[in-house]
Write a structure and sequence with these properties.
Length: 133
């Protein structure tokens, strides 16, 4: 999906955008996975070596203790801005975080594993809106 604005916390993201994404997390349904994610769970590889239970447990934690997103996709609809997807990174185990990409409807679009030591030095900041700066 193409977004009118793609925001990243390391480039620019207003607090109210983070707040809205955190409110959306409280409505997540642990049983709504995209076909894309279901396919990943069936065909394990290094970035997807986890179970649906890992995702269920993570989603349950997010509904109780929402966390700030690191990426948000926004579209303008009927003259207003709406979050269409957001991404969170949270604890899975002592060496690995789990990244979860969530739609505005609460569908878990995809998820993947990321090493805790990954500092994202390769982030392509040109992909993201910078607040007009």
């Amino acid at each position: 999906m193409k977004y009118d604005y793609l925001l990243h916390k390391d480039v620019w993201m207003p607090q109210n955008t983070k707040d809205v994404a955190m409110k959306l997390q409280k409505r997540l349904d642990v049983n709504v996975f995209s076909k894309h994610l279901v396919d990943h769970l069936k065909n394990k590889d290094r970035k997807h070596n986890y179970t649906s239970n890992d995702i269920y447990n993570t989603i349950r934690r997010l509904t109780i203790n929402p966390i700030e997103p690191f990426e948000v996709g926004i579209n303008r609809e009927y003259g207003k801005l709406h979050i269409k997807k957001y991404c969170v990174r949270t604890y899975l185990n002592s060496t690995t975080d789990i990244i979860i990409v969530i739609s505005d409807t609460g569908t878990i679009i995809t998820s993947y594993l990321n090493d805790k030591n990954d500092s994202h030095t390769t982030l392509d900041t040109s992909r993201y809106y910078n607040g007009g700066n």
